[in-house]
Amino acid sequence: MLQSLTIKNVALISSLTIDFGSGFNVLLGETGAGKSIIFDSLSFVLGSKADKTLIRSGEQEMKVDALFSNLNENILDSLKELGYDEEEISLSRILYQDGKSICRINGIAVTLSQLKLIGQILVDIYSQHDSFDLLKTKNHLLMIDRYAFNEINSLKENVKICYQNYRALLDKINVLGGDKYDRERTMSLLKYEVKIIDDANLSINEDVEIKAKRELLNNAEKIVQAVNVCLEALMDNNQSAINLIQFASLNLNSLLKFEKLEDIKNRLDSCIYDIEDICDYLKNLRDQMDFDEAELDQLENRYDLIKSIVNKYGSIENALKYSIDAKNRLMQLEDADYLLENLIKEKEILYNQLLEACNILSTKRKNIALEIENKITKELEDLNMKSSKFVINFNQLTNPTANGFDNVEFEFSANIGQEVKSLSKTASGGELSRFMLAIKDIFAQIGSAQTLIFDEIDAGISGETGNVVGAKLNNLTNFAQVICITHLPQVAAYGDNFYYVSKRITKDNTFTTVDYLNEKLIIYNIARLIAGDNVTEIALKHAKEMREKTGKI
Q1: Regarding beta strands 101-105 and 108-110, do their DSSP bridges make them parallel or antiparallel, or are they unpaired?
Q2: Do 351 and 138 contact (CB within 8 A), yes or no?
Q3: Residue 172 has what DSSP assignment?
Q4: pLDDT-derived band of residue 143, with 50, 70 and 90 as boundaries?
Q5: For the sheet containing 61-68, what is the strand order?
Q6: What is the mean predicted confidence (pLDDT) over 451-474?
Q7: pTM for this entry
Q8: What is the chain's alpha carbon radius of gyration, rounded to the nearest angstrom?
Q9: Rounded to an integer, what distance in angstroms lies between the CA atom of residue 310 and that of residue 168?
Q10: Range of the domain at 97
Q11: Is the pLDDT score of 445 beyond 80?
Q12: Domain boundary among 334, 369, 402
């Protein structure tokens, strides 16, 4: 059960620790005092979506810690499967203004998904949000499977195995091209693609080389003009670089006997050789620019072809590899007739096995659904919905899945003579509250969670129905700890532990506080729920009688 909840810097709460007891815990207080903030804080530490607007004004972070103890065997076994073998378990979560969050379980950092998984094992929360979850058809089958987990799980596992075997066989058939017509289409496409690649006669890096040559030829006129200017400056006139260097070299000959200038002369002669080499390269480059338009058109066509192949396959290397793989695939497909014949026979066998497993699972689910129908109908009768009718409707999916072929929807009628319709189309807010309570009641009996949280379960109900709701919540304490926010005296009268939530206003700030109530204050606050702030002796007497009637005093 939830032993304690410590909240720091959440909305109006600066620092607060609440120690909860076993049995029926009731939170009372005026609207706006902060009761829902306490539940928001608990939802936060259990892994719900973080909202940094909840961080108390002026603070940089908020933190919530929850300690759970006296865990029952079902909870301990579930936690042990996830690697938590302790008798107690603590959850902690911090949210910073920048949106970053830190989660811990028993002091060890974990992911948010891990925290949420553990939270779902420990606590089951009902709020108005859960009403919307109840209306979602996709959740109805999950609820049936959860109700009879031990009976259904092995059947679901068998369906999953059959489905995986069937899908694996379909994959094998697809690898071999599927049926005759699929295979012929695949072979035709592969042959076409192989022909395009092979006819292109590709070579590695050809695209890079052609791109460079194409750019060269497209700029041929500019290149030739620049090369001619360079050649003229280097060697094709009397004042060219070579002539001037040669003239300088000859003049040094007369000085060699006076000074040691052989090294300088050799360097000048080397420059002549380098320039001549450069000129040869430039002449070759100029000669390459001698082409006709037909050659350029041919190069452009080749470039476009290679570009289209590279765009499709990513690179020439990938295209060549694809051609090899496609040829191997073609050989495989050409020899596939015999293999396919056997696989198609096996496919029929596996499909029938899958259908049989789905049928067995569906039959079990329908039996469980009938049990749930009867129990919920009885619960609804107890909750003063005696004319209501509840049906779990099954429809079969066209194709089996790993979860069977059942499509399930909860259908409901609140009044005699009205046909049952989708729960989302017929149930009012008050009816949904009672319906959810009925669901929680039957699920608590199978040990779905040890702590049940109800945020204003009494919405939309009053009078004698309030007494029934209170009694139902009290009955839940036979299986779990109950924590409830309520505004109905009939519900509050069943409480075992009471907490009064109030706002304390100082000169420049507002704080939420929580006080544990003794029996005298319990009766006084139930009387306030009856009569408002003007508590009379009659209201106090009525409140005491309500407590006595519930057997709590």
Answers
A1: antiparallel
A2: no
A3: H
A4: confident
A5: 13-19, 2-10, 61-68, 89-96, 101-105, 108-110
A6: 80
A7: 0.63
A8: 42
A9: 33
A10: 2-153+450-550
A11: no
A12: 334
